[in-house]
Amino acid sequence: MHRDAAVMAQLGGVRDDAQTAAYLARNLQHWADHGFGLWILREAGGGDPIGRAVLRHLRVEGVDEVEVGYAFYPAFWGRGLATEVATACLELGRRELHLGTIVAVTVPGNRASQHVLRKVGLAYERDFMNEGALCSLFRTR
């Protein structure tokens, strides 16, 4: 997924092997530390991965937040899967983790993802700088 230019266009760009290994290590450590994190998604019945979902801690301007996120291969765009996955992650965050608020981060121009976030109950809060890039912050209402 990290080598797919279409997928990664909204996620900071294509990553090389070292960047992907670091991403995986961070996410495995998150699971070890918190008991939740990144999920690899497959269609019902198994098969090859179709995307990923995430519910994980994220520092936003020095504040510890919990972020919901998702990414899918282009063949799976437009099927409502992002809405389904985001809804499930938000429910898990509320019901199992007892989170009072959950955030999401997009690049300002990612209208499709912003539409999903609004549909599942997040509202635009503000733009901010994250790892040197301008991002839009959304938060549960």
Structure description:
This protein is α+β, with helices and mostly antiparallel strands and 141 residues long. It has a single domain (36-140), classed as Aminopeptidase (3-Layer(aba) Sandwich), CATH 3.40.630.30. 33% of the residues lie in helices and 34% in strands. It has helices at 5-8, 17-34, 81-95, 111-119; strands spanning 38-42, 49-60, 63-72, 103-106, 122-130, 133-140. The protein has a 3-stranded antiparallel β-sheet. Strands 4-6-5 form a 3-stranded antiparallel β-sheet, covered by helices on one side. A hairpin with a 2-residue loop joins strand 2 (49-60) and strand 3 (63-72). The radius of gyration is 14 Å and the shape is globular. The termini are far apart.
Q: What is the overall number of helices?
A: 4
Instruction: Profile the largest sheet.
Output: 3 strands, antiparallel
CATH superfamily: Gcn5-related N-acetyltransferase (GNAT)
Mean pLDDT: 88
The main sheet orders its strands as 1-2-3
CATH architecture: 3-Layer(aba) Sandwich
Order of helices and strands: HHEEEHEHEE
Strand % is: 25-35%
CATH fold call = Aminopeptidase
Query: What is the general shape?
Result: globular
CATH class wording: Alpha Beta
Radius of gyration: 14 Å
Annotation, overall tally of beta strands: 6
Quickly give the structural class.
Answer: alpha+beta
Low-confidence stretches are none
Number of domains: 1
Distance between the termini: 31 Å
Q: Summarize the amount of helix as a percent range.
A: 25-40%
